[in-house]
From TrEMBL:
<dbReference type="Pfam" id="PF03965">
    <property type="entry name" value="Penicillinase_R"/>
</dbReference>
<dbReference type="InterPro" id="IPR036388">
    <property type="entry name" value="WH-like_DNA-bd_sf"/>
</dbReference>
<protein>
    <submittedName>
        <fullName>Uncharacterized protein</fullName>
    </submittedName>
</protein>
<keyword id="KW-0804">Transcription</keyword>
<comment type="similarity">
    <text>Belongs to the BlaI transcriptional regulatory family.</text>
</comment>
<keyword id="KW-0238">DNA-binding</keyword>
<dbReference type="GO" id="GO:0045892">
    <property type="term" value="P:negative regulation of DNA-templated transcription"/>
</dbReference>
<dbReference type="GO" id="GO:0003677">
    <property type="term" value="F:DNA binding"/>
</dbReference>
<dbReference type="InterPro" id="IPR036390">
    <property type="entry name" value="WH_DNA-bd_sf"/>
</dbReference>
<keyword id="KW-0805">Transcription regulation</keyword>
<dbReference type="InterPro" id="IPR005650">
    <property type="entry name" value="BlaI_family"/>
</dbReference>
Length: 130
């Protein structure tokens, strides 16, 4: 049985997981580094260390294919994003999802398209609870 991931994620670690969720067959540490360095300057050693830590903390699973270690996430995107969102709301908004939404609305950070999407999600959630 696979162990649950330990600890929380840094933005850089989450970036690695996002790349891996989008990759069909996983990626090597070198491929992860190449993808990330397209958008910002980062050393190969830094990425290797991040990947190694993620694997040791059970966020990634490693397999060897044709002499190269490939990594895949051990958790799905939705569960991880939900965990991170809950931690963020707990740490910064006293555990209140309403407070974060009100904060975003007050700062004009939500587009009209996002508002429509939120309304649809709320309506769907409300109908499931009936």
């Amino acid at each position: 049985m696979m162990q649950s991931p330990e600890g929380t994620l840094t933005p850089a670690q989450f970036e690695i997981l996002q790349l891996l969720w989008d990759a069909e067959a996983g990626l090597s540490a070198a491929e992860i580094w190449e993808a990330i360095r397209e958008s910002r300057d980062v050393s190969r050693t830094t990425i290797s260390n991040l990947v190694d830590r993620l694997e040791k903390r059970n966020w990634l699973v490693r397999s060897k294919e044709e002499g190269v270690f490939r990594y895949v996430p051990s958790v799905d995107r939705e569960a991880t994003e939900g965990k991170l969102a809950a931690e963020f709301v707990g740490d910064f908004f006293n555990g209140s999802a309403a407070n974060i939404v009100l904060s975003l609305l007050g700062s004009n950070q939500i587009s009209s398209a996002e508002l429509k999407r939120l309304k649809a999600i709320l309506d769907e959630s409300k109908s499931r609870k009936k």
